Amino acid sequence: MSEKIVSVSRIPILITINNVIDLEGELVRHLSPLTIKRIISRLPITNLVNNFQNNFIQIKFELDIGIEKPKTIFKKGDIAFSPISNNLCIFLNNFVHKQQLNHVGFIKEDGINELLKTKAGDFISIRKV
């Protein structure tokens, strides 16, 4: 019997900043199952990062999907997708967003300090582990 338990509802991801810093996270299927299915089919994602006043970072990501289980209130470390602006957002602080977003997962708390240091021109890569 395998020692490692693999869950079909929680998909581990690795977020890499500038090919140097690695952060762990998870996509959680029950939060937005259709959105997560599309995200997984498009991984890995690599794009420039946009730090929005140290509240959240955005990564441009064309997904062509609508609102699914919309939320506007997010906790530090949450990952969400914006169907309106086609951005994947990672929240650096607790935040109330004006748009309704599809909550898709989270990153581990210890990685958030590294994301606070991101600036224009930095690259972020997200891949399935």
Break the fold down into its secondary structure elements and pairings.
Blueprint: E1 10-17, E2 21-28, H1 33-42, E3 45-52, E4 56-60, E5 70-74, E6 78-82, E7 87-91, E8 95-107, H2 112-116, E9 123-128
Antiparallel strand pairs: 1-2, 1-9, 2-8, 3-4, 3-9, 4-7, 5-8, 6-7, 6-8
Question: What keyword list fits this structure?
Answer:
49% strand, 129 residues, single chain, globular, mainly beta, 9 strands
Can you walk me through this structure?
This protein has a single domain (10-128), classed as Cyclophilin, CATH 2.40.100. It is built from 2 helices and 9 strands; from the N terminus they run ββαββββββαβ. The chain has helices spanning 33-42, 112-116, and strands at residues 10-17, 21-28, 45-52, 56-60, 70-74, 78-82, 87-91, 95-107, 123-128. The chain is globular. The model has no long low-confidence stretch (mean pLDDT 90).
Just name the CATH architecture: Beta Barrel
Read across the widest sheet, the strand sequence of neighbours is: 1-2-8-6-7-4-3-9
Distance separating the two termini: 21 Å
Q: State the CATH class.
A: Mainly Beta
Overall structural class, as computed from helix and strand content, comes to mainly beta
**Overall radius of gyration:** 14 Å
How much of the sequence is in beta strands? over 45%
